[in-house]
Design goal:
The longest helix has about 35 residues. Strands 8-7-11 form a 3-stranded antiparallel β-sheet, with no helix packed on it. Strands 12-13-14 form a 3-stranded antiparallel β-sheet, with no helix packed on it. Strands 1-4 form a two-stranded antiparallel ribbon. Helix 1 packs antiparallel against helix 2. It starts with a helix and ends with a helix. It has 2 domains: about 120 residues, no CATH class; about 140 residues, no CATH class. Strand 12 and strand 13 form a beta hairpin. By secondary structure, the protein is of the alpha+beta class. It is elongated. One of its GO terms (biological process) is bacterial-type flagellum-dependent swarming motility.
Length: about 260
């Protein structure tokens, strides 16, 4: 009976939806995290009578045909790109992006990764690095005797010293953008890799090319909407239960059929 297999694909789809929701809820407090949405497509159809088929008996054309769907399959898990709200931290190296850009990060392999996580740190060598210890691109080194630093909206990093009045410009942070940011490949630790779907990185100064600006002393909150996630969790649970009932009903029909004498 096809209903058993069709309902099984429905249960698998709802299970995947719940897994995606659980990932979102688990990252409610992850800096710069964007919620994901599981999307599905119907499977192939068994063509028992194609629409437009000519009826051999009288030559008429079937207006609709008989097409039996075989279930559902996952088609994608899409990142919902949305600006998260900003939380003030007053940290010198806490930087939020107001716009669609990404920080460029140098991985040990030499490859570039991209992140919206602005919880930056200072390494033992004075380099500005991510929480994982990866250096930001371009490299900017903070002198040991710097009293404090200031980062403006365009990414210019200034250091203040006790024995000088004027600040010293240390460098300028840049942002990267992509033609299709949803095509980036997530690798964990709030980082993404460029992919053929995302297109190449377009690196520019904050405030240009629509990449957004920087705000020192703030962090971007996760864009997960808890109310929406809970609502979708309930819908997914009900969908799973309905598919389970279909399996139960199909099993009872098979049982009734086998008991016919």
């Amino acid at each position: 009976m096809r209903a058993l297999k069709i309902a099984a694909t429905g249960m698998s789809a709802q299970q995947m939806r719940v897994e995606t929701i659980s990932q979102n809820l688990a990252n409610m407090n992850t800096t710069g995290y964007n919620a994901r949405r599981a999307e599905f497509s119907d499977l192939h159809y068994q063509q028992m009578a194609r629409p437009g088929t000519i009826n051999a008996a009288d030559g008429t054309v079937l207006p609709t045909g008989v097409q039996l769907g075989l279930g559902v399959r996952p088609s994608s898990v899409t990142v919902q790109l949305a600006q998260g709200s900003l939380s003030q931290t007053n940290g010198d190296l806490d930087i939020a992006i107001e716009g669609k850009g990404y920080f460029e990060v140098a991985l040990p392999s030499g490859q570039s990764a991209y992140s919206r996580d602005g919880t930056l740190k200072r390494s033992a060598d004075g380099l500005i690095v991510t929480s994982e210890g990866f250096a930001l691109v371009p490299n900017i080194t903070i002198p040991d005797d710097a009293r404090s630093i200031s980062i403006n909206a365009e990414g210019e990093v200034y250091a203040y010293f006790n024995d000088r009045i004027e600040p010293e410009l240390l460098g300028q942070l840049t942002l990267a953008g992509f033609s299709n940011s949803k095509g980036l490949e997530a690798i964990g630790s709030n980082m993404f890799l460029e992919s053929p779907a995302s297109g190449p990185a377009i690196v520019s100064i904050p405030g240009t090319d629509g990449l957004g600006t920087l705000r020192q002393g703030y962090l971007e909150d996760s864009s997960v909407d808890a109310v929406r996630e809970v609502t979708e969790l309930i819908e997914a649970q009900r969908g799973y239960e309905l598919n389970a009932k279909v399996i139960t009903a199909a099993d009872q029909m098979l049982s009734a059929t086998s008991n016919i004498r």
